[in-house]
Amino acid sequence: MTASSLAAGTPSPPGSVSAVVLDYGNVLYAWEPMAAVAGYVSVEAWEEFVADGDFLAWNERLDLGEPCERVLADYARAHPDRPDWAGILSLYRERFAASLTGPVPGMESVLDDLLEAGVVLYGLTNFDAGPFESARLLVPQLERFAGIVVSGREHLVKPDTAVFTLLLERYGLRAASTLFVDDSPVNIRAAGRLGLRTHRFTGAGRLRAELIALGLLPTPGQR
């Protein structure tokens, strides 16, 4: 396997694709957690909080739809000697909107072209249900998706295979003809084990090349 194919993830096998499922964070819109606390928390303090305060595990509880107040209270009890960490988590949640730092370059045109081509699109995102209602407005094309599964509504998160099964069953999708696009290698592997076609997102250009190879988008200049 070449270095370029490793960077893109496992190539999709030949055959037709009837639906494309896209992650939200860092595929459609950039998510940079530290941006929420920039100017309030130093880089060093944030990095310590993430590494030693286990930020991602606690953030997953929010993505699972647990009430924010409960998560914050549990965090404070789990780290009684680090009230500063509890404060960082609370501030992150309070200023969450600032962690969404802008559209992923090139993805607006990819979405527009897929929709113009009549490709059926779905979303599958690990996201707290409340903040997602505001975040979805940042990507207007989401209103034209055939469906979106949000972890906080379902109390299931990727890479749990149950959330992929829910997506397939709810929308009547066949795994073998569904392309799943995500930036996380762990999520990609989980989807692949269920038989979904996969593309590990590293940029809009590489995704567009994959979509052209699958016949979902035309070669530029050959419309």
From TrEMBL:
Cross-referenced InterPro entries: HAD-like_sf, HAD-SF_hydro_IA, HAD_sf
Protein origin, superkingdom: Bacteria
Protein name: Phosphoglycolate phosphatase
Classification lineage: Bacteria, Bacillati, Actinomycetota, Actinomycetes, Actinomycetales
NCBIfam families to which the protein is assigned, alphabetical: HAD-SF-IA-v3 (TIGR01509)
Alphabetical list of Pfam families matching this protein: Hydrolase
